[in-house]
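Tokens for chain A. Residues wanted.
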């Protein structure tokens, strides 16, 4: 099995239509996804000294981090508007093998930076709100 290209790991945002179309957030050079899960411990006397965890319980979440250069695209403007308003939007993570994950996310953090005579860059942190499911 060959390695998958990082350039094909895309972050997209919904356009607000019904059904939604997803626009790639342009200029991203790095994208990272973390799937997090809290556990519920149900250890009891008959556990024999071993920890027991309750399957399917606890809180699950998906975090997405991305960084890139600012190009001024419509998708970037939409992300900024949601960051300022503190509102959710639908996002899609797309992978080279064709797999896609979709869910509602909130912009937890949006940072801009720029050096004199350099390009303007930004970093983005998204946190899921509700289920993130295969599309």
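Reply:
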């Amino acid at each position: 099995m060959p390695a998958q290209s990082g350039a094909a790991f895309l972050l997209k945002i919904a356009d607000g239509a019904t059904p939604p179309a997803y626009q790639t957030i342009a200029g991203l050079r790095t994208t990272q996804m973390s799937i997090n899960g809290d556990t519920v411990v149900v250890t009891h006397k008959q556990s024999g000294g071993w920890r027991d965890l309750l399957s399917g319980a606890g809180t699950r979440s998906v975090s997405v981090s991305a960084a890139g250069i600012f190009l001024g695209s419509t998708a970037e403007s939409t992300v900024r508007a949601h960051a300022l308003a503190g509102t959710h939007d639908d996002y899609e993570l797309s992978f080279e093998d064709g797999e896609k994950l979709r869910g509602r996310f909130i912009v937890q953090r949006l940072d801009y930076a720029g050096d004199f005579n350099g390009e303007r860059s930004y970093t983005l942190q998204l946190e899921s709100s509700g289920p993130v499911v295969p599309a």
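The chain has one domain: 6-130. Residues 6-130 form a domain with the Factor Xa Inhibitor fold (CATH 4.10.410.40).
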